[in-house]
Amino acid sequence: MSEYRPVDPRESPRFAGIKTFMRLPHIKTTKGVDIAIVGVPFDTGASYRVGARFGPEAIRSVSALLRHHNEVLDVSIFDHCSVVDYGDLPVNPGYIEDSYKMIEDGIQPILDGDVIPILLGGDHSVTLPELRAMAKKHGTVAIIHFDSHSDTGDKRFGRKFTHGTPFRRAVEEELIMVENSIQVGMRGSIYSRDSLNDARKLGFDLITTVEVQKQGIDTLIQRIHDRVGDVKAFVSFDIDFVDPAYAPGTGTPEVGGFTSSEALRIVRGLKGLNLIGFDLVEVLPQYDPSQITALLAANIVYEFMSLIALRKKLESAE
Ligand code: MN
Ligand code: MN
What spacing in Å lies between the alpha carbon of 281 and ligand 1's midpoint? Predict the structure, then answer.
C-alpha cells in the first residue's frame, strides 16, 4: 500500500476539502514518493490569449472526479505508486528568464529525490526549463510532443523564449535526443511552406494530424515506439492537440483535430516506454466555461500516471 494516496470519495464527498490533484495530500516532500504533481502557473510566453497561469488550479478542481482504478489499462494506480500534490513552482509573472531559472531550480529537488514529475502548465514556454532540469538529472532525453503546433519557431517579437519556440531552443541547448524524438498532431494554417520542414531539419520526426487520420492510430503508436525505443522519454502534451470542440479552453486553438477519446487512446499507446516525466500545458480556464478542457486534461494526466503505475506493476510481477 502506497504511503501517499487520495482521499476515498466513497467516504468523503468530492466537493469537500481543499482542491489538490485527485485530492492527493499536498506535501512538499520526495521521501516515500514515486510521482509528484506540480503546477507551473506561468503564461508570459503566450503569443495570443493569456490565462494558462490558471490552468493548474482548474485541472486540480475537476480532477476530484477521478477514481483509483484504470479499467482499460487494468491498474490500480495507488497500489503501485505513492503520489503527492507538490503544489506550484514559484514564477515571476512578466519575466520569462527569471521564471525559467525558478522553474528549473524548483524541479531539481523533485528529480534529485528520484520522483517522476507530472507538471501542469502554464503555457508551452515552461517546457524549456523543465527540459533543462531533466537534462541535468538524466542527460539528454527523447521527447514525445503532442501539439497542433511544432513550437520550433526561432523568434517571436524579436525574442527567443516564447511558447512558440521551446523545442528549437531544446535542440540548440542539446537537452534532447532529437534522433529519438517525435512531434505529433501538427495542423492548421502555418507561416510558410517550410514551417514544418524546419522542425524536420532540426532532426525531429514529425507527423501531422492529417497523416494520423489517414494512417490510423495503431500505426502512429507503432511509429512512436519505433522512434523512441527504450531510451528515457519525456512527454509534452499541449491540450490544443485535441480539437477545440473537445478542448475549447486553450490559447491558440486549431480546428480539425482529435477527439478526446482518440487522445486518451494515443496516450495509453505509450504503454511500455521508459517515461521519466510529463507535462500538460495550455489549458485556459476562462475559455472553458463548462470545464471540459480541464476535465480532459485531468484525465490525460490520469492516463499518464496509470502508465507509470502499470510499468511498476509489471516489473514487480517479473
Ligand atoms: Mn505548444
Ligand atoms: Mn499548440
Answer: 7
